[in-house]
Amino acid sequence: MPRIKGLTTGSIPGFVDIALNLDSKALVEDNVITQMYRAGRRIVFYGDDTWLKLFPEHFVRHDGTTSFFVTDYTEVDQNVTRHVVPELSRPDWDVMILHYLGLDHIGHLAGPTSSLIGLKLQEMDTMVETIHSTVVEQDSERALPTLLVLCGDHGMSNAGSHGGASAPETLTTLLFLSSLFSEGKGSSHVTSPVYQTGLAPTLALTFGVPVPQNSLGQVMTPVLARSSSRDQLQAVQINAYQLVRVLQANVPGYNREAGYQLYQQAVKMHSGWLKALVTGETAANLETLGQRVTQQYRRAMEKIVDRVSASLSEYDMHAMAVGIALLVQVSSILIAASGKFVAEVVPGTDSWMVYIPSPILLLSSFFLVLSAQVSVCTSATGWASAELCSGKAGWFMSFAAVTFTSVCVSLTIQSLFLTNWRTLLSAAAYGLHMCCSLPWETMFLLMGVGLHTVSLGSSSLVEEEHQTWYFLQTTLFLLLMCSTLQALPSTTRLRHSLEQDTDVDKESDIYKQRISLLEGEQKYDHRKEKTDKESSQAEEKVQSECGLSTREDCVLDQGFVRKMVAVLALLVTSRLLRSWNQTGIVSADRPDIGDWFVRPENKMYLSLLVAASFFTTFLLRWRSCSFSSSFLLGVGLIGVYHYRGKTGVLAAPWVLHTDKGILEARLVYLVIIIQLCWTCVELFKTWCQHLQTVKDDENLAGNRLRDHVPKNNLPTTQSFYKEKENLKDARKIFVDGLLTTFVLSEALLLRPHNATVLAVTVFQQYVLHELVLPWTTLYHSVPLLALVHVWMGQAAFYFQGNSNSIATIDISAGYVGMEDYVQEIAGTLTCLSTYAGPLLWFTSLLVLITKKYPRPYPAMLQACFAIIITRTLPVTGYTVITTLQRYHLFVWSVFSPKLLYEGMLTAVTASVVVLMLCLGVPLHMIGATLDLTHARR
Predict the structure, then answer these.
(1) What pLDDT, on a 0 to 100 scale, did the predictor assign at position 91?
(2) Is 843 inside a domain boundary?
(3) pLDDT-derived band at 529, boundaries 50, 70, 90
(4) Could you tell me which of 657, 661, 680 has the C-alpha nearest to residue 669?
(5) N or C: at which end does the chain have fewer Cβ atoms within 10 angstroms?
(6) Residues 335 and 285 in one domain
(7) Are 364 and 309 in a shared domain?
(8) Are residues 309 and 352 in the same domain?
(9) Final residue before a domain boundary, out of 314, 343, 373
């Protein structure tokens, strides 16, 4: 839609048009199509239905096709082609517009290197040849010649997408074909680049209709080469006059602008040329003078366009300032709450005295902020926001912002009065001392959040943000490795000190848990202790294998090696993923592993890779899932491969490529729904059974008490502990099933070569949860665990090949298994595919917390709080940076796309936080039920 708008209006599309592209409305801005319609031109159209939405009731005949359904690249073009020949034989139209979509869809699906590109270009070449030969033949019998314009609305990146600012995405071909040009054979000497905005005035002047009034385009004079010099000068003068009108409407003091003064000189020169024409000047002199006048007009138009373009960047500073103020207040509240500043900074002060403002102070702050808002809205300076100062919605948003700001202001003032500054400085010094004594990995996690926020102030680091996350992730792994090396001698000494400490009860659970932690054991269950005979046999076996003198040294050596290998595996797999999909501006055009696999000649290798990746994913998830969940995952992965084989992307000899694989994709969706429903039903059923068992056991105990049986002699039902264990298992099955559901969904939505990225991500989750984190201090802090998963998710986002450019969004994922375009479903699927990495790691965090804590809700609150802070700080900082850099050279190509990504990631994160809190309630209730019944036993 933005490019169609630019082609027809001659104006520069705004960046918000990218978001409006999903729901196009009728174009009210003046455009060349409407001008032709008003002039009585009869227009027919076939192709992208966006034209029908932008120009309703403009066409005498039309047949639109859905532009967003990118999985179809045959029917969308056949629907256009079938109308061409019949229309060429009809004399009842003046303009015919054909918008083919197949080439664009192939780019989104398979990229520019696909073998389908060549076939589609041959099809288009045949179609252009048919049209051109027909109109040239018809022009021999007509008074007016036919003009055939062939152009693209956008280019294509090396990844097959568009929307960025790279040359392959912004450069496209523009051809004018007519029987007037060298007797229909065409001309190849005009190859100068032109702006898309120049097409609208060129077509308007060619068809004799007014130039769109807001157009910033310049007429393409080579198209008018066959016209007389007088007509050419008149066309350029009309174009220049229209641009002067735009200059007058947008630039105060326009008469002092260089472009306007050049225009005045061009008008005088044009007047002199007309006088020379009347006086009978020679043709050669008129030609030379005419070229000078044309050049003067063009210089004037270039200056005017540059000046108007610079003035079009208008910003609602009032609304932007209010939004930034609210973000800063929210960030401040979160930071203050995270540090528990009430208890540490203001000792002896009750928390409610700070968190509940004084009514008088609150009212005073409210009227103060309200008066400031009203003053801005009623001022004559032009700063008032149309969004905040008009309409019911605007005043409601203003009232909400004023109320929230008033509360924050009153709390801040109240806190300042209650604060003992000497105590505050002491607390700050103590806090700095504590931070310096933290483990290196903990300190680096906390510093990394701030470093990432600061890095967003550089346009280069915004373009290459993936390098920031790769650096943070790799450095964290290296710090974990260093901590492992440093902890080895101290761990050995601690083991011996525990063995030699006579004051410690070696039969206590605390002692055993410390020993088990040192030995690298994940859990300790006293009910599963081995017998003395089994223990001695195991000890002899371990000593014989390791060749060490004591079992303790052997176990410590094995744990050390296991952890080092696990961290090395994380480093190696992360390096592999970095080379799998090169992203960013610097490395996007470099060949990577994924590019090699998607080549048509490597289809068999890609098929083997996807099969191996799916098998690896199945094995990794099979270790922690139930049989039913593993079975559904296996069936789903087979269905995904079958779907890709049906679409022709993977080699599947048993599959006939007769359709688009819609049935197969929908069967996978069905498996996903069954998997999700089964885990929920299983959890609910087990919980109900447990509650019934508890009730039966209480009834039995009551009956025994009435029979005067002593409490110590009350029998315990054999099914009680069994039901309790079943309930614990059901809770684990539920969260594992939820993760498996996400894994299967991403396997279906991601591009085939990214199946390896998915498998490696699942492998990293297993290694991190089972082999690395339990050995570190991070394992005992929920906020730090949340930070680790946020970092891993952000790195995985870029491992997929994403970047901060709109061009890397894979919109083909939104149409998997769909026959028609449904905006809500397509948007949701595209979002799930784009943010697959963060979603998988967020779900993995939910699984870890649920397994680690019997009552997980408090831990989930801490994790959600940490996630919110890590999202709020960069959003607030980047919003301020973008506002300050709003006149930067790269504001539209770098800062604005990143701002859209930040907003979307914030929405996704908020959804995840809400989901975690909602799931935490029933999981916490189950844990509370287990603890309560255990206490009663």
Answers:
(1) 87
(2) no
(3) very low
(4) 661
(5) C
(6) no
(7) no
(8) no
(9) 314
CA dihedral defined by 76, 80, 81, 87, rounded to 10 degrees? 170
Going 50 to 54 to 56 to 62, the CA torsion angle's sign is: negative
Q: Is 165 left (phi over 0), alpha (psi -120 to 50) or beta?
A: alpha
By three-state DSSP, how is residue 714 classified? Answer: coil
Task: Identify the pLDDT of residue 189.
Answer: 59
Q: What is the 3-state secondary structure (H, E, C) of 127-147?
A: HHHHHHHHHHHHHCCCCCCCE
641 falls within a domain: yes
Q: Which of 449, 444, 446, 451 is nearest to 476 (CA)?
A: 444
Q: If residue 150 lies in a helix (H) or strand (E), which one and from where to where?
A: strand 147-151
**Residue ranges in 547-626 assigned as alpha helix (H):** 551-580, 584-587, 593-597, 603-622
Same domain, 631 and 677: yes
DSSP state of 893: I
What average pLDDT does range 285-307 have in this prediction? 90
* Structural domain boundaries enclosing 140: 2-197
**Is the residue at 271 inside a domain?**
yes
CB 368 within 8 A of CB 405: no
Out of 750, 766, 796, pick the residue that ends a domain. 750
- Range with the poorest average pLDDT among 50-54, 311-315, 905-909, 918-922: 311-315
Burial class (CB in 10 A: 0-12, 13-18, 19+), 829: buried
Residues 187 and 149 in one domain: yes
Residue type, position 827, single letter: G
Query: How much is the pLDDT for 369?
Result: 74
Ramachandran class of 801: left when φ > 0, alpha when ψ lies in -120 to 50, beta otherwise: left
Q: What is the pLDDT of residues 753-792, one digit of tens each?
A: 999 999 999 999 999 998 888 888 788 888 899 999 999 9
- Give residue-wise pLDDT tens across range 202-254: 999 988 899 998 888 899 888 887 788 888 899 999 999 999 999 988 887 88
Angle between helical axes of 823-834 and 836-852 (0-180°, round to 10): 70
Name the H helices within 312-358: 317-338, 341-345, 351-355
For the four alpha carbons of 587, 593, 597 and 600, in that order, the dihedral sign comes to: positive
Exposed e or buried b for every residue in 467-492, given b needs 16+ CB within 10 A? bbbbebbbebbebbbebbeebbeebb
Number of domains in the chain: 4
User: DSSP 3-state assignment of 105?
Assistant: helix
Look up residue 646 and give its amino acid: K
* % helix, strand, coil for the chain, step of 5: 70, 5, 25
Give the integer Cα–Cα distance in Å for 25 and 27. 6
> Buried b vs exposed e over 540-563: b needs ≥16 C-beta within 10 Å?
eeeeeeeebeebbebbbebbbeeb
Nearest to 76 by CA among 821, 598, 822, 829: 821
* Distance between CA atoms of residues 826 and 830, nearest Å: 6
Residue 312 vs residues 276, 304, 444, 623, 636: alpha-carbon distances, Å: 40, 12, 44, 59, 52
Residue whose entry in the numeric block shows the structure tokens 């005088």: 268
- Residue 652 located in a structural domain: yes
Residues 413 and 283 in one domain: no
Greatest Cα-to-Cα distance within the chain, rounded to the nearest angstrom: 133
User: Residues 289, 379: one domain?
Assistant: no
Q: Helix 102-110 and helix 75-88: axis angle, to 10°?
A: 170
Nearest to 734 by CA among 586, 624, 590, 858: 624
Distance CA(745)–CA(740), nearest Å, equals: 9
CA distance from start to end of the chain:
68
CATH number at 37 reads 3.40.720.10
DSSP state of 771: I
Same domain? 265 vs 343: no
Find residue 134's DSSP bridge partners.
none
In the 8-state DSSP scheme, what is residue 808? G
Q: What is the DSSP letter of 770?
A: I
